């Protein structure tokens, strides 16, 4: 095996100050076609990086001479260092495109969430930007799709940073490479606990998913950064709000305008964003973006129709809570018919209540939590 591979970040058409001699002394220089044309010394053999990147880099690691890899910005930040990580490296970073984008906007970014939609489905990046107050998204040709999905947020596209074609805040089509900066209200996940008591939420006559049930439902939903969760029949919004506290983007759907208003007030109390939709499921679900997880808190006579809609479009898990035992088997069968792996657990909780100088066990109504997971 050869010695270390030298990785140089490139910004504004230059390698980092003090590394010019490393580039000039290289026997082999690898990078994108444009950067090789601009920077590779005439004495070095050039290797263009493109498709089959991992195989090409493995070959470079066994070159007998001095190898330099040129990469955009900070090669360790969503960059080529990850692919080269098993080999001895000497890395000299330039400012990353994200750092440059925030600098151009005059914004601090230690509190920003950075995600990549480069060469991957942009939905997780979009969901992250819908939930978090400051997000940078690394993109490719999907920048226009991302901007369209984030209408209503403050979105700035920083294009071709450090080049003569640099543009900040322009309209599509967007030049490559670019970074999408998304700003919103200063609200960030801060959940240090979950399954909050019912007293943490405004609700009507006990019409709320109890803490014990919510704990099991949240475990099955698994909400986190980049996820979108539907709360169908959101009621007080307790499940929706807990998912948002854990970092997910959330949509609460209910046919009752009063329930929607209660959910909105509870979300404001807990300082989390929850999008609300007033309408009867499943019809109200038709125009919504597909979720990673769905919670159905009842459903009534429409439960079968709701499950027929949510099961095919939910990417990870559908969680249903039912109090009537007659609905358990049909709901399980409905989810299984859509190819989900289905389990069910009936919860019977007893809470201690004062009684004659001591305590008694006060039983809560049994609730069955049905979980359908995508295999």
Describe the structure.
With 375 residues, the protein is of the alpha/beta class. The chain folds into 3 domains: 90 residues, Cobalt-precorrin-4 Transmethylase, domain 1; 86 residues, Methyltransferase, Cobalt-precorrin-4 Transmethylase, Domain 2; 176 residues, Vaccinia Virus protein VP39 (Rossmann fold, 3-Layer(aba) Sandwich). It contains 12 helices and 19 strands. A 7-stranded mixed β-sheet has the order 13-12-11-14-15-19-16, with helices on both faces. Strands 3-2-4-1-5 form a 5-stranded parallel β-sheet, with helices on one face. It has a 5-stranded mixed β-sheet with strand order 6-7-10-8-9, with helices on both faces. Helix 9 links the parallel strand 11 and strand 12. Helix 8 crosses helix 9. The longest helix has 13 residues. Pathway: Cofactor biosynthesis; adenosylcobalamin biosynthesis. Keywords: Cobalamin biosynthesis, Methyltransferase, S-adenosyl-L-methionine, Transferase. One of its GO terms (molecular function) is protein methyltransferase activity. One of its GO terms (biological process) is methylation. InterPro entries: 4pyrrol_Mease, 4pyrrol_Methylase_sf, 4pyrrole_Mease_sub1, 4pyrrole_Mease_sub2, CbiE, Cbl_synth_CobL, Cbl_synth_MTase_CbiT, Cobalamin_biosynth_MTase.
């Amino acid at each position: 095996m050869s010695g270390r591979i030298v990785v140089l970040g490139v910004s504004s058409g230059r390698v980092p100050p003090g590394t010019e001699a490393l580039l000039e002394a290289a026997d082999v220089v690898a990078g994108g076609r444009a950067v090789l044309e601009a920077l590779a010394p005439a004495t070095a053999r050039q290797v263009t990086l493109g498709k089959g990147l991992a195989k090409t880099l493995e070959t470079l690691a066994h070159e007998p001479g001095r190898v330099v890899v040129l990469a955009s910005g900070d090669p360790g930040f969503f960059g080529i260092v990850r692919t080269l990580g098993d080999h001895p490296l000497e890395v000299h970073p330039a400012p990353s495109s994200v750092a440059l984008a925030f600098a151009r906007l005059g914004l601090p970014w230690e509190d920003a969430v950075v995600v990549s939609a480069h060469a991957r489905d942009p939905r997780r990046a979009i969901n992250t930007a819908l939930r978090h107050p400051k997000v940078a998204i690394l993109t490719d040709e999907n920048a226009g799709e991302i901007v369209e999905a984030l209408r209503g947020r403050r979105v700035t596209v920083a294009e071709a940073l450090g080049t003569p074609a640099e543009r900040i805040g322009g309209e599509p089509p967007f030049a490559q490479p670019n970074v999408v900066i998304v700003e919103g209200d200063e609200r960030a996940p801060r959940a240090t606990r979950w399954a909050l008591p019912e007293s943490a939420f405004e609700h009507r006559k006990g019409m709320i998913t109890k803490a014990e049930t919510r704990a099991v439902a949240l475990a099955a939903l698994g909400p986190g950064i980049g996820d979108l969760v539907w709360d169908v029949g959101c009621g007080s919004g307790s499940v929706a709000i807990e998912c948002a506290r854990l970092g997910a983007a959330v949509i609460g759907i209910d046919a009752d305008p009063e329930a929607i208003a209660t959910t909105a007030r509870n979300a404001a109390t807990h300082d989390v964003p929850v999008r609300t939709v007033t309408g009867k499921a499943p019809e109200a679900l038709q125009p919504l973006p597909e979720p990673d997880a769905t919670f159905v808190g009842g459903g009534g006579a429409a439960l079968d129709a709701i499950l027929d809609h949510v099961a095919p479009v939910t990417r990870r898990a559908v969680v249903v809570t039912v109090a009537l035992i007659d609905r358990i088997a049909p709901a399980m069968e409905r989810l299984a018919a859509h190819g989900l792996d289905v389990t069910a657990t009936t919860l019977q909780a007893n809470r201690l209540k004062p009684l004659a100088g001591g305590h008694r066990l006060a039983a809560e109504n049994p609730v069955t939590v049905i979980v359908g997971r995508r295999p």
